[in-house]
Design goal:
The structure holds two protein chains of two kinds. Chain A is an alpha+beta fold. The longest helix of chain A is centred in the middle third of the chain and has 6 residues. Chain A is elongated and about 50 Å long. Chain B is of the alpha/beta class. Chain B contains 16 helices and 13 strands. In chain B, strands 9-8-7-6-5-4-10-11-12-13 form a ten-stranded mixed β-sheet. In chain B, helix 5 runs parallel beside helix 6 and helix 11 packs parallel to helix 16. The longest helix of chain B has 19 residues. At the A-B interface, strand 1 and helix 1 of A face strand 3, helix 2, helix 4, strand 4 and strand 5 of B. Strand 1 of chain A pairs antiparallel with strand 3 of chain B.
Chain lengths: ~35, ~450
């Protein structure tokens, strides 16, 4: 039996949409574009 | 069923029997025995495994259709976005004189007047259509807490109007933290405040060098005292901005916070960013320590170091997820204090990127000016495994670097160098998979 261990199921588009609008959580983002000033 | 083209499969150090699966499309993360992907590819895997992987979007019926869905992902986000999200620049007054501030000489103290605030309310009520169920305002400045009366005015007017439509009104603060107090927070919570993002640049001497009060006095001790006083009252997102010279000292801030009783539970997340080198006419010409591109080699070392130091202390770091840019969202924008509309807070003061105003609405030209969907013209983007995490990168960074947004701000080199290590950090610290950060042993396959 192949055992899959799900650590994080991820998110679908509706979940992304619900928190969208602030790109400061991107894995690659510098200060100004993250909203820091 | 083939594996998703947005699936990253890596060996798991310290666990030779396991592989790590990560979907750049969903942020999903799973472990699977090493021989399972081959069995899946060969069609020999048990149905319950293929069903589970399909539910995670790690296996797909039709790879071409999957790719088309990802190319249409931003349109899908816009179709199902339940929010109207607006950054509101209340005014340009600030009590700090941060060395790297991109707003620089724009901070002339001008502020939103009452007529503009009234018009903003009218405009937001027009934009808040029947499909929406939440209006989120991100109050921004300058320093937004220099404008508490304006916050009270906008929030106290909008909250009942949105609630009367069956919706929810919320607002956040992007603040330097120097004016945060329990009394103010408790008052604003009643008006819809849901969180604050506070910036602290590492240990005291570094922070005070980069983020002093206007009079030159340090601000670190005041901010930390305010964070302690407000502990538990509202979610705080702790932020900070580092350079290639000081990033290694940023973890000292976390130790100082922990010593004050502000441990991991005190913050919704902690995330530090490299300072961006801003080259336009507003910026401080004497500051030169920022990055012009995420491809600068030191950023790989710095970002992984910072991330690991945050995670190993138990503080929360945002998960790897698709995170669309405001420019790509139909129902997200920025309103400057004079009522001008922009698609990113960083572009205020650049009339060529003004998109209209709160009296006339958006003009027809802004999509061309912001090079919307520029990534769709790039073959390297259309076939890129990182597309859901990137969608052409940061237009503002491209603009600062190249004077134009026409070309994508490619993140591939940075993600090639960091993503696998970020996954191993997550396994080690978020999911207690011990040994994930051990050096990889070369394998025959």
């Amino acid at each position: 039996m192949e055992t899959l261990t799900v650590l994080d199921p991820g998110v679908d588009a509706s979940e992304v949409a619900a928190s969208a609008g602030c790109c400061s959580n991107r894995p690659s983002m510098a200060s100004a574009a993250s909203g820091d000033h | 069923m083939p594996l998703s083209r947005y699936l990253i499969v890596r060996h798991l150090p310290g666990h030779p029997e396991q592989q790590v699966l990560f979907s750049t499309r969903t942020g999903g993360l799973a472990l699977l025995p090493v021989d399972a992907p081959a069995a899946v590819r060969a069609g020999n895997a048990p149905p319950e495994l293929t069903d589970s992987l399909a539910k995670l979007s790690m296996l797909v019926d039709d790879p071409l259709r999957e790719q088309q869905e990802v190319h249409g992902y931003l349109a899908e986000i816009n179709r199902c976005n339940p929010n109207l999200r607006v950054s509101v620049i209340l005014g340009m007054a600030c009590n700090f004189a941060c060395r790297y501030c991109y707003e620089g000489s724009l901070k002339d103290g001008s502020a939103m007047d009452e007529a503009t605030a009234e018009q903003l309310i009218r405009y937001l009520l027009v934009r808040y259509t029947t499909e929406k169920n939440r209006l989120i305002l991100d109050f921004y400045g300058g320093e937004p807490l220099l404008y508490p009366d304006l916050i009270r005015f906008l929030a106290s007017r909008l909250k009942p109007l949105i609630e009367a439509r069956g919706g929810k009104f919320e607002f956040t603060l992007v603040s330097n933290g120097s004016l945060l107090s329990p009394a103010l927070v408790e008052e604003l919570l009643g008006l819809g405040l849901v969180s604050a993002k506070i910036t602290v640049d590492g240990p005291e001497a570094n922070h005070n060098h980069f983020r002093p009060h206007k009079n030159g006095r340090g601000s670190w001790a005041t901010i930390l005292a305010n964070l302690k006083d407000c502990y538990g009252l509202l979610p705080i997102f702790l932020s900070g901005n580092y350079t290639c010279d000081n990033f290694r000292r940023f973890p000292e801030l976390l130790d100082s916070l922990a010593a004050m009783g502000l441990g991991p539970e005190a913050f919704s997340s902690v995330m530090f960013y490299p300072v961006m080198q801003v080259n336009d006419r507003f910026a401080n010409p004497e500051f030169s320590g920022g990055c012009c591109s995420m491809q600068e080699p030191w950023l790989v070392v710095a970002s992984l170091f910072i991330r690991e130091e945050i995670l190993k202390r138990g503080y929360r770091f945002p998960k790897l997820r698709p995170s669309p840019c405001m420019v790509d969202l139909d129902d997200a924008f920025c309103v400057n204090h004079d009522g001008t509309l922009y698609k990113c807070v960083t572009l205020i003061g650049h009339p060529e990127f003004a998109c209209g105003d709160i009296s006339q609405g958006f003009n027809e030209e802004w999509r061309q000016r912001y090079c919307l969907d520029h990534w769709q013209k790039e073959e390297r983007c259309l076939g890129c495994i990182y597309l859901p995490l990137c969608f052409g990168g940061c237009r503002y960074m491209a603009f600062q670097r190249e004077g134009s947004m026409a070309r994508v701000d490619c993140q591939k080199e940075f993600l090639d160098a960091t993503l696998e290590k970020m996954l191993m950090q997550d396994l080690e610290y978020r999911y207690a998979v011990k040994g994930a950060l051990l050096p990889q042993t070369p394998r025959p396959d």
